[in-house]
Design goal:
Blueprint: E1 2-3, E2 10-16, E3 25-31, E4 40-49, H1 51-58, E5 72-80, E6 94-97, E7 100-101, H2 107-110, E8 122-123, E9 135-138, E10 143-145, H3 152-171, E11 179-183, H4 188-199, E12 203-208, H5 214-219, E13 224-227, H6 231-240, E14 247-252, H7 259-264, E15 266-274, H8 287-292, E16 296-299, H9 305-316, E17 326-329, H10 333-341, E18 349-352
Parallel strand pairs: 11-12, 11-14, 12-13, 14-15, 15-16, 17-18
Antiparallel strand pairs: 1-5, 2-3, 4-5, 4-9, 4-18, 5-6, 6-10, 7-8
Helix pairs in contact: 3-4, 3-9
The chain binds zinc ion (2 copies).
One zinc ion binds near residues 102, 105, 106 and 108.
């Protein structure tokens, strides 16, 4: 086993003191985890605040009292397990992490479907302690080195806030000439989905519930921005952009509030990708519409290691410029949650230990 510098035995974390409002996020201490034979110990340098974290904190997901949430992690590898091949390739490297550590061996992993692995250590903040902490465990199966000129807060955004959109756009086969509607466009995944859809050659309609985010979305390259449009306004906008029969792709980042309008805005053979679920609810899938227009509805989970590596390349080459994060110190995680909940953050909130 190799280590870079002295690793303390205890670390600061923010844990859930029950579930509810932001004030359930409280400081605590924990033993620093020990890497297993093929694992990495990562000193967390930044952790993003995801909509998923808000749901976990409210008690909608599996997190309970004592959980350490946070799955959007960047850091530095400070220790490597004893049986890791090529430890020197990892020790001291700055890395961004995919939010799930897969096993690498199950049928899903063998088929390169690592987001579907349920055998490995799992998802940060649910199956293993998350990134609202000074240290986390990781693996070469979920870590990607990041270049020097990508700062820590940006590194923390790459897998979830940026990579989720790339995967969703790919699930829908997005390409040049498509009109893509992004709902929840002002959030962390939304702003980057707009930029990535433009990168893939699409025309982009950004849908947001916040008029204050309109200008930022136009600056990011959105061809049109609509604030809480009804179906008629959204269809009209897509028509004005050259497709009177509707949009080719919807990246649905909100779920309940926008799904019915988004579904109606699709052209025949349109593709809707469900990614976000900010207000968990059953969605009204209109069967007549779906059948007669031969629509496709996909689910898309999170980036895998290949997606994250591609995002790192896109950012390094300047093809995609992540929206600067708003940063809070770890002990003010509750304030970061409060700001995100009040929709005061365009892009990503990030906490740093
Ligand atoms: Zn996330
Ligand atoms: Zn697996």
């Amino acid at each position: 086993m190799g280590a870079a510098g002295t690793i303390p035995t205890e670390m600061r974390v923010i844990e859930l003191d029950g579930t509810g409002g932001p004030d359930v996020l409280v400081p605590a201490t924990r033993p620093v985890p020990r890497p297993a034979a093929s694992q990495l110990l990562v000193r967390v340098t930044a952790c993003g605040v995801c909509g998923h974290d808000l749901l976990a904190r409210r008690g909608v997901l599996s997190a309970a009292r004592g959980s350490v949430i946070g799955h959007e992690i960047a850091g530095e590898v400070v220790e490597v397990g004893a049986e890791l091949p090529e430890p020197a390739a990892w020790l001291g490297r700055r890395v961004a992490l995919v939010q799930r550590i897969p096993c690498g061996d199950c049928p899903e992993c063998t088929a390169q479907l690592t987001t579907l692995c349920r055998v490995g250590p799992g998802f940060y903040g649910e199956d293993l302690p998350g990134g609202y902490a000074e240290y986390v465990l990781a693996s070469p199966l979920n870590a990607v080195p990041i270049p020097e000129d990508v700062d820590d807060a940006t590194g923390a955004m790459l897998s979830c806030a940026v990579g989720t959109g790339l995967r969703a756009l790919r699930r829908a086969g997005t390409g040049p000439g498509d009109i893509v509607i992004v709902t929840g466009a002002g959030g962390g995944v939304g702003v980057h989905s707009v930029a990535l859809a433009k990168h893939l050659g699409a025309t982009v309609v950004a849908v947001t519930s916040s008029a204050a985010k309109e200008e930022a979305l136009l600056r990011l390259g959105a061809d049109a921005v609509l604030v809480s449009p009804n179906a008629r306004a959204l269809r009209g906008c897509v028509s004005d952009l050259g497709k009177p029969r509707g949009a080719d792709v919807v990246v649905e980042l909100t779920g309940g509030p926008t799904f019915p309008v988004a579904l109606r805005s699709l052209a025949p053979r349109g593709r809707l990708v469900l990614v976000g679920n900010t207000e968990p609810a059953a969605l009204p899938l209109h069967p007549g519409l779906t059948i007669l227009k031969e629509l496709c509805v996909y689910g898309s989970a999170h980036a895998d290691r290949g997606d994250l590596a591609e995002i790192v390349d896109l950012v390094e080459s300047g093809a995609i410029t992540p929206v600067p994060a708003r940063v809070w110190p770890l002990h003010e995680a509750a304030l970061a949650h409060d700001a995100v909940e009040r929709r005061q953050v365009t892009g990503r909130a990030v906490i740093v230990p």
